[in-house]
């Protein structure tokens, strides 16, 4: 049983790592790379485009059930959840990995093997993370470790692109687990030493301008949506963006018009704003609205003076990921640093946009780490994953997970008689 609670994080980790059952779990992971690989190959071969994760989710639910986890079920958003009950079952630690991929339906997903390498869309992002979930569940069940609090395993939907973190939002906003989750460990992609502590925030907008359009000669007094949109975008391009906190602005798509001799009826652009600081995102959003409004207003004044119809505009939010930072003294950060010290790893902090954005933005303890091995070509059809060395990352996750269970259980108020 894992019940000890030493004063410092490093002592706690050393004690955990010296427990015979934890050794057995390490041993299980050491001996079962073939099993992990088989899971990963099967998982990769089940397509999971955004909003179409159901088949993969059902496969994962069956694996959770087969491993003997409790209450394996899909939630209303499509996340697959399962529990490993702990000594304290009022609290849980969430261990999650997103099951969706960026690849649209119809993308060939059958994996190829080249030596140790697995080549397939989604082989690394995030088949590596989901495989780690299964490996850890199997190792914990096999060794009959009873964690200090319940572990909630989640294969969540909607991490990529327009999924807009919907799986994680559901878990923290509407699910019955939302109050019970003490801390969150997100597994995403490969890597053994990185830890995402800065949640990169983003806001994405679709800007649309519409007007009467017309003939380039006879209606030349009509306002031109492409030119007016261009003016607004030029204003944005002249903004000074801070390097610290790092903040970026991108216009990724621009559309409009039908022919060279027509004044277009519409023009649109897609704008992506990113920052580690939520206030910068708000500031930029205001400036985006102002730039579009000013450009349209001024064009409409000119058009009205010439007796021409006005332009209308609409700015729609396409996606929103909140920015947040895990405080340097957060217990979960001390815990991963202690684990890394124990395992002889460097802890490499990173800034990224992951499922951990949601709990972090709510002031909850969360971080995102890799599921081991190496990978590349993420989000392309040339994506690959090599599991060499995966075992070390799984040990890292296991120690962090069990330690978080101890800390989460300890945070519970003790009921008075
Ligand atoms: Zn991912």
How would you sum up this structure, described in words?
With 417 residues, the protein is an alpha+beta fold. It folds into two domains: 9-199 and 323-411, 3-Layer(aba) Sandwich (Aminopeptidase), CATH 3.40.630.10; 201-321, Alpha-Beta Plaits (2-Layer Sandwich), CATH 3.30.70. Helix content is 36%, strand content 26%. It is built from eleven helices and 19 strands. The chain has helices at residues 9-17, 20-31, 33-44, 54-66, 127-142, 166-173, 225-237, 278-305, 331-343, 357-361, 390-411; strands at 70-74, 80-84, 88-98, 112-114, 117-119, 149-156, 181-187, 194-199, 201-210, 214-215, 247-256, 262-263, 266-275, 312-321, 324-325, 348-352, 365-369, 374-376, 384-386. Strands 1, 2, 3, 6, 7, 8, 15, 16 and 17 form a nine-stranded mixed beta sheet that branches. The chain has a four-stranded antiparallel beta sheet with strand order 4-5-19-18, with no helix packed on it. Strand 18 (374-376) and strand 19 (384-386) form a beta hairpin. Helix 7 (225-237) runs antiparallel to helix 8. The longest helix is centred in the last third of the chain and has 28 residues, at 278-305. The chain is elongated and about 85 Å long. The two termini are 25 Å apart. The structure holds zinc ion.
């Amino acid at each position: 049983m894992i019940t000890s609670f030493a004063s410092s994080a490093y002592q706690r980790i050393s004690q955990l790592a010296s427990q015979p059952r934890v050794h057995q779990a390490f041993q299980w992971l050491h001996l079962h790379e073939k099993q992990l690989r088989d899971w990963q190959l099967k998982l990769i071969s089940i397509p999971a485009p955004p909003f179409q994760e159901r088949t993969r989710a059902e496969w994962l639910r069956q694996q959770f059930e087969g491993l003997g986890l409790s209450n394996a079920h899909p939630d209303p958003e499509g996340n697959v959840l399962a529990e490993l009950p702990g000594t304290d079952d009022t609290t849980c630690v969430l261990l999650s990995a997103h099951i969706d991929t960026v690849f649209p339906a119809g993308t060939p997903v059958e994996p190829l093997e080249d030596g140790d390498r697995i080549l397939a869309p989604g082989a690394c992002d995030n088949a590596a993370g989901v495989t780690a979930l299964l490996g850890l569940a199997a190792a914990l069940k096999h060794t009959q470790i009873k964690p200090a609090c319940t572990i909630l395993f989640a294969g969540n939907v909607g991490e990529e692109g327009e999924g807009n973190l919907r799986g994680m939002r559901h878990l923290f906003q509407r699910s019955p687990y939302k109050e019970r989750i003490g801390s969150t460990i997100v597994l995403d992609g490969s890597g053994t030493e990185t830890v995402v502590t800065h949640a990169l925030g983003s806001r994405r907008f679709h800007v649309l301008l519409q007007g009467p359009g017309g003939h380039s000669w006879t209606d030349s007094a009509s306002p031109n949506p492409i030119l007016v949109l261009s003016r607004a975008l030029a204003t944005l391009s002249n903004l000074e963006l801070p390097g610290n906190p790092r903040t970026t602005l991108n216009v990724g798509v621009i559309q409009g018009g039908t022919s060279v001799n027509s004044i277009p009826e519409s023009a649109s652009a897609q704008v992506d704003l990113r920052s580690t600081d939520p206030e910068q995102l708000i500031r930029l959003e205001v400036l985006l609205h102002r730039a579009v409004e000013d450009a349209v207003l001024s064009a409409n004044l000119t058009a009205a003076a010439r007796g021409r119809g006005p332009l209308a505009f609409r700015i729609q939010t396409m996606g929103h990921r909140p920015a947040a930072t895990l405080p340097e003294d957060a217990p979960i950060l001390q815990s991963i640093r202690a684990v890394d010290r124990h395992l002889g790893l460097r802890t490499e902090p990173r800034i990224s946009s992951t499922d951990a954005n949601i709990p972090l933005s709510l002031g909850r303890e969360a971080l995102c780490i890799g599921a081991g091995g190496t990978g590349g070509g993420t989000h392309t059809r040339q994506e690959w994953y090599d599991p060499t060395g995966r075992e070390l990352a799984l040990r890292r996750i296991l120690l962090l997970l069990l330690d978080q269970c101890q800390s989460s259980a300890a945070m519970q108020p003790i009921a008075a008689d």
